[in-house]
Design brief:
The structure is a single chain. This protein is mainly beta and 54 residues long. It is built from no helices and six strands. A three-stranded antiparallel beta sheet has the order 1-2-3, with no helix packed on it. A three-stranded antiparallel beta sheet has the order 4-5-6, with no helix packed on it. A hairpin with a 5-residue loop joins β5 and β6. It is globular, with a radius of gyration of 10 Å.
Length: 54
């Protein structure tokens, strides 16, 4: 399980997950949505990122 998510395209911070399960998402992201147990985040550069809550 990753603890920090960085966009590979623009090298910007997308989200981080703490040991207790708390997820912090960059508020400057274009779009943030929740589908089931997945966060879908669209970065400022347009790249899609998916974080699952397992």
């Amino acid at each position: 399980m990753k603890n920090k998510y960085i966009c590979k395209k623009c090298n910007k911070f997308v989200a981080s997950r703490s040991d207790d399960g708390e997820i912090n998402i960059n508020p400057k992201s274009k779009k943030i949505s929740l589908k089931g147990k997945e966060f879908r985040i669209v970065c400022k550069c347009g790249q899609n990122h998916t974080i699952s809550m397992n």
